[in-house]
């Protein structure tokens, strides 16, 4: 488990920050930002293939990566890329909020996937997690994911307004 945490930090924070810092001058801001997303994309796909599990969490991660990569590629410049990421974050907040509203909280399905990886049946976990006393906590947790997405997008928008594209390194650290 410690090894996974170290790899997560390496591929989602350290390498993107290095690609950003050392890729800006030779490639420009926009391409350096695109390049900084590559380690996380490759690592996530590798983990998805390595675990060989079809699960809601994995599909959500792959879909999110595909969507964010597509948005990044069509952005055209660094500033638009960052604003599109802000809008995409708000979009994710809407998805999480709707899952709470329709009584299908994403956190519950993520927990079912996690329990399956621990050796428990999906059906048993799902029926247990949907009991009245437990289900409300998954609703609350998904609502917190919604609020987190709103907070992160708002923070990124504030940092973008305050520092512009030059503040991308700070955004990587803060977020």
Automatic annotation (TrEMBL):
Tree of life domain: Bacteria
Name of the protein this chain belongs to: VC0807 family protein
TM stretches of this protein: 5-24, 30-49, 56-75, 87-112, 133-151
Record-linked NCBIfam families: VC0807_fam
Keywords, sorted A to Z: Membrane, Transmembrane, Transmembrane helix
Annotated source species: Sporosarcina saromensis
